[in-house]
Amino acid sequence: MARKSRKNIAVINEPEIKTSIYIRTAQYIRLSVEDSHNKGNSIENQKLILDDYIAQHPNMKPTGTYIDNGISGTTFKRPEFQRMLDDINAGSIDCVIAKDLSRLGRNIIDTGFYIERFFPEHKIRFIAVNDDIDTDNLKSNDSLMICLKNIINEAYALDIGKKIKTQARQAMHEGQYVSARPRYGYLKDPNDCHKLIVNPETAPVVKMIFEWFVGGMSTNEIALQLVARNIPTPSVYGYNKGYITSKKSVGQNSWVSRTVRNILEQEIYTGKLVQGKTDTIAKKQLPRDKSKWIVVENTHEAIISQELFDKAQERLQALKNKSKQKTIIPYTENIFKGKIFCGHCGRSLHRHRDSRSGKYHFYCLTNQRYKRGGCENGIIYEDELLQVIMASLKAQADVLIENKDIFAASIQDQPKTAEITMEIKRLKTFISQNQNFLSSLYENLVYGIISPEEYQTMRKDYGEKISDAVKKMHDAENKKKAFEQEYNRYREMDRALELLFDSGKFTKEIIDKLISKIVTYKGKRVEITYNFENEFESEVQTNG
């Protein structure tokens, strides 16, 4: 029999066939806290099941494993799940497999959304191995079974949540400490994680704080004394000891009034456990009425006496009552929020209103909160600062006007814009043609016109051409988009300047558009960094 010619092979108009011979498959694994006791749901076991399934399906090619460890299935705000969605949106995944439906989620509405809407819209095949669910091969009653299983999974999650909450409250009534971390001043008993013992390193600090406060020292002065003695804050101490694992929760290792006040309010230091102060309602943590707190006395060794604690509470209440008696006049908007900093220590400046004159000024908090004499910066009044900025902006406006015409001509350069647009169009056509060739190539393989070896060689060649063209197209699109965005930013800043000079008034919107950073120094010296400084310098030089 004569061999069929491979020249001028037409694309056959039959049902769409995937351009890839492989199904790019993502493995999704989730282990929640309540699942940790179930070996069948362990990460290792889930991975084994998914690997075995893929091994039995040669057309599946693993493209990534996404593991959310210790996260409830009732929420879909999971880091790895969200990363998987990003990869789906990027077009790098064809199929998602999970051990069962409960690994995907235990929220009937959201789980249903992903299976019935999101995955189909993005042409994603979903497989739940143990539940025998495959959205590409659904049986007559599978849709009903998916709905029923999702209902059961959500009910299970709610039931587990209630049981955990009930067990925790029962433990509180029995005088067991249920928090994950020990309270500052204490350690967890190595023989019983629900029992507290005095921490010889931090308990003296707690006692000292109470004695200083009852003796008449302010919370701010106490904070300064602790900083001066180089005593680590509770969060830093916890991080150093491993109680706190997230660096973001540590802060700047500087005692502040709020931290001192929080310690002064804790009755746990008198030897009693006070727990159950909050309740979770609709996924929000809300305070409980004091009458519903769970208080158990004599559960651990006290650091301070009840008498000392009561005196501290009396003084805290007296200070609170005194503060309430003051007439509160709302502050005007701080238009420099997040923009103004100290040039000596780098901290952001605090805005304060003079009680007599009503004028606002900015000053560095270092001397008051962190270290006496720690910063030499003085104050600068807001109206003085506004005058300095206005004068500076008028001078800078001349620079913008000089470059305005050059840059405007550049962005409106029709031949240049048309050239980029035509290049993008050409690349899109090239990609489309090669994708059609790749599709017909696969059909030729299926119909036996070419051999698998020839298919793989030609497929690689077309694939490389497509990848190269896609990259070039993205680069061209990004260049055009970035160019337009820069010009739009320039126009916004130009309009902000016009509005400022017409009205003579600053607003936060104007400050945000024009100013990147303000730094003040001793002697009221001011450095201003504008958003438009060198913004378009390279473009102006290129077209100048």
Q: Could you walk me through the main structural features you see in this protein, from its secondary elements to its overall organization?
A:
- The protein is built from 16 helices and 17 strands.
- Helix content is 49%, strand content 15%.
- The protein is of the alpha/beta class and 544 residues long.
- It folds into three domains: 23-161, Resolvase, N-terminal catalytic domain (Rossmann fold, 3-Layer(aba) Sandwich), CATH 3.40.50.1390; 186-324, Putative Large Serine Recombinase, Chain B, Domain 2 (Hect, E3 ligase catalytic domain fold), CATH 3.90.1750; 385-543, no CATH class.
- The protein has helices at residues 43-55, 79-89, 101-104, 108-121, 142-173, 203-214, 219-228, 234-241, 257-264, 306-324, 366-370, 382-411, 414-446, 452-503, 508-514, 537-543; strands at residues 23-31, 60-69, 95-98, 125-128, 133-134, 186-189, 192-198, 273-275, 278-281, 284-287, 294-296, 340-342, 350-353, 360-363, 380-381, 515-521, 525-530.
- A five-stranded mixed sheet has the order 2-1-3-4-5, sandwiched between helices.
